[in-house]
Amino acid sequence: MDPSVLLLLAVLLSLFLLLVRGHAKIHGHLPPGPRPLPLLGNLLQMDRGGLLKCFIHLQEKHGDVFTVHLGPRPVVVLCGTQTIREALVNNAEAFSGRGTIAAAQLVMQDYGIFFSSGERWKTLRRFSLATMKEFGMGKRSVEERIKEEAQCLVEELKKYQGAPLDPTFFFQCVTANIICSIVFGERFDYTDEQFLRLLNLMYQIYSLLRSFSCQMFELFSGLLKYFPGVHRQIAKNQQEILNFITHRVEKHRASLDPSEPRDFIDTYLLRMEKEKSNHNTEFHHQNLMMSVLSLFFAGTETTSTTLCCGFLLMLMYPHVAGKVQKEIDQVIGSHRLPTLDDRTKMPYTDAVIHEIQRFSDIVPTGAPHRVTKDTMFRGYLLPKNTEVYPILSSALHDPQYFEQPDSFNPDHFLDANGALKKSEAFLPFSTGKRICLGESIARNELFLFFTSILQNFSVASPVASKDIDLTPKESGIGKIPPTYQICFLAR
């Protein structure tokens, strides 16, 4: 037998023995699920179409709560609106830990807002919420920033004079600039080379994280991290973004005015200085870097992807776009900018945006959680540190709440009188203690960007609406819509 094959078998056997020992220490009573194979876990039940398809198939057989082994590690999967809410809301503290996204955590580790848990996470989240509120999230100033960016976008789109274009780049630019203005204190021109490089790096990371290769890495990261693969490219891209952030932090440090902090970084640096004598402080350089990286990534890709999905749907359902424009004309007209105050007077438009988020389902498996203590849940004992996947897609497509869960239909969010109807199953930002930090900003961006574009343009497709393909380009822990061409025609 080839020596390299023998070596690989020896490594696998060693890992297997370690895992057997580790499993012997696990206590508790996990929910039932498909029978795992030693080391491989439930690899044979994995669908080439992604983890989501696998989980939905297993839900049909095992119910709303089951255990699946991603390689050697057991993960408890939660499906359905009531199940997810019972865990993340009714047992919020117990389910507030962060689970593993192996490919991203090679660099992030357990630092920053997104990947930390326990007191570190609570401290950073409190600080981040207060600071983002100070620099835009809860003030009208963020509305002004979004309106300014929307006008920049409109002027840019006018230059194309209705010629077909891929909107992905422009939606990345506008959403990235909003978070940049809060975190870095400035926006970037759409032709700025450094800005364009950052957008490209983030889009690559986003695509790689959602690839089938990356899902396989999640299953066997303990072994595969020593070999070439997508995780190496993700780590390389993350490091390049961190180099940019480091440069920005040093510029902020050199020009910092303690009496007038300009943005998130300034405020964090002042807190670092205040707590420099506290050896146990969470306000140190590592948490700053990883928090900014988390904010920059999360504040850009998810909202821009939703906008991409939204306008693809408008091409496929032109009558919906027409009804939105009719409401825009009635409430806003053509001589002023949309404002957030308009939203309450535009129930149909608001319902369309909600349905875009529901139907697009861009983070279907949700961010992984981890229980912070031994937890009884629906008759099962989940030992401390058990990983939990709340499948948000199962709520967004819950037939108990949505009459046509697999169809795009804004009536899902309208009552009999045409008013906006809220739904417990509307969980695109997740729920509970780890609900998306930037939910308010994202909701404001979606409304103002969506209405500003449709106020100024009609949209058309170079291909017939019946030929438009909604199949995601990638569908792993998140979905990426297919690339497409759209014509923005001046109204």
UniProtKB/TrEMBL annotation:
Keywords of this entry: Endoplasmic reticulum, Heme, Iron, Membrane, Metal-binding, Microsome, Monooxygenase, Oxidoreductase, Signal
Localisation per UniProt entry: Endoplasmic reticulum membrane; Microsome membrane
Keyword Heme on entry: yes
Organism: Mus musculus (Mouse)
Membrane topology of the entry: Peripheral membrane protein
GO molecular function: heme binding; iron ion binding; oxidoreductase activity, acting on paired donors, with incorporation or reduction of molecular oxygen, reduced flavin or flavoprotein as one donor, and incorporation of one atom of oxygen
Record-level GO cellular component terms: endoplasmic reticulum membrane
Similarity comment: Belongs to the cytochrome P450 family.
Keyword DNA damage: no
Signal peptide limits: 1-24
Described purpose of this protein according to its UniProt entry: Cytochromes P450 are a group of heme-thiolate monooxygenases. In liver microsomes, this enzyme is involved in an NADPH-dependent electron transport pathway. It oxidizes a variety of structurally unrelated compounds, including steroids, fatty acids, and xenobiotics.
Cofactor(s) demanded: heme
Superkingdom as given in the UniProt entry: Eukaryota
Residues bound to heme: 436
Protein's name according to its UniProt entry: Cytochrome P450
InterPro entries listed in its UniProt record: Cyt_P450, Cyt_P450_CS, Cyt_P450_E_grp-I, Cyt_P450_E_grp-I_CYP2B-like, Cyt_P450_sf, Cytochrome_P450_fam2
Catalytic activity: an organic molecule + reduced [NADPH--hemoprotein reductase] + O2 = an alcohol + oxidized [NADPH--hemoprotein reductase] + H2O + H(+)
